[in-house]
Amino acid sequence: MIHFKRFDHLLIPIPEGKQEEARNFYSEILGLKEVPGPHPGGALWFSVAGIELHLREETGGTYSKRHPAFEITNLEEAKRELESRGIEITYSSEIDGRQRFFFHDPFGNRFELLQFTA
Question: Which Gene3D superfamilies does the record cross-reference, listed alphabetically (predicted)?
Fold first, then answer.
């Protein structure tokens, strides 16, 4: 049996030649702190909610509904912030005990933000 300790990082693909656009989206629009340094494969690393988000250029590929989900403290505030920056918000099935929405980065990667309700 494997005993997992914690979620460490998530790597998602970005198209080749889009590193600066990715850096702008994740640092300026989402407000994530970039982890400096040379990283394997020239990846960009960001710190978010105690984990690392890694972005690495890849060729081709298709995108799906796969996504990371992050619990946040104020879903409505996040929605207003993203929409004010032109980011489209979408919804999916309802889940008891939590509110949530989805958005995509400029490269088609899907993210979920959620807030637990009383």
Answer: 2,3-Dihydroxybiphenyl 1,2-Dioxygenase, domain 1
